[in-house]
Fold this sequence. Notes:
The chain is built from 10 helices and 16 strands. It is α/β, with parallel strands linked by helices.
Amino acid sequence: MDNTPIVQATGSKIYLIWENDGIKMTVRKISDKSSTGLRGEVLIEYLPEKVAEVGLGTHIIQRTINLTAQRSINEIVKALTEATQDYFQIDWPRIMEQLTVNVSRYKGGNFESIKIGNIPVVNEEKHFIFPFVRKNAINIIYGPGASGKSYLSVFLSLLVQSGKSYAGLNPDQGNVLYIDWESDPEDLNERLRAVKNGMNIAYPDIEETEFLYYRAKDKFVNEEDTISDMIVENNIKLIVIDSFGGALAGEINDAEASMQLANALRSLGVTILAIDHVAKGSNASPIGTIYKVNLARNLWTIISKTHEDTNSMEIVLKHTKTNNKKELPRVFYMEFESNEEAFGITDVVRINNMNPANSILLEEIINQEQGEKIG
Length: 375
């Protein structure tokens, strides 16, 4: 019988599950100092299936524990034994020792030092959606306001959540968490429903697809504990950050704040798609410190042109940074239908890919860039 725990380090938290014992623990506020030892706030619970027939709640205790002080461990073992012995016989000394070993091992995250050079290269798709969303990396799509960024991010999120191919894009399926600093759930729900309505001829069952949404209340580093719980509880693979500036609480020119945010995002162990703005009158790079560009692995700028007579928008995505080969521009066409009886709410958004050779906007962009080079 395997009595070792399943361990997942996400963000600044460590999650442990002892399936055979029916116990789970969540450790947060971890510190390791020579003066105080290895400490953490530990929530100890039953797994729901453990107590289903007994009629107990899942909570056992929550304490701040010094994991390297035997007296502290002994006190916790005693408290746990008294709390559970009337119902179950659980080997708490073994579990607490395993807790200490794993918190010590994973307190810095899931990453350990390894030797490289002879690890076999895995030939598999490295993107959730090629070429916009590279797996296990920070991806940024940036552009001016009203350029279609939010509709595009909702569209890409829907493709990943559903795993359905559309508009020339072939996603890998994964659960999505959309974290929003700029809008509200009603607005994003309206956009998601409109995009689904635009796909329902090809996929009638797309209307059943949902993804997780969270309206952030503070800058990302102060929300990290809550977000880590969402990732573990919902098996999240892709997080959409809308927007990078919102996640920084406006500290867009602070290089240290951007580095702190990037480190926090990487510690989550999931793929990141961040939406960002540009400085007024410039599409050259995301607004703020250059560190955002340096810290991301995959950057695309979005340039769009609205056609008011047809209630449509042409969108060009240009690849501005990658650690590998730069991709050619991609072009999409969005058509919007509004429900005038419902106060003009956009209830259908059709998104299709275009042949770049047929894009007037892309031709204009290329001509402008060539003119700037000549000038």
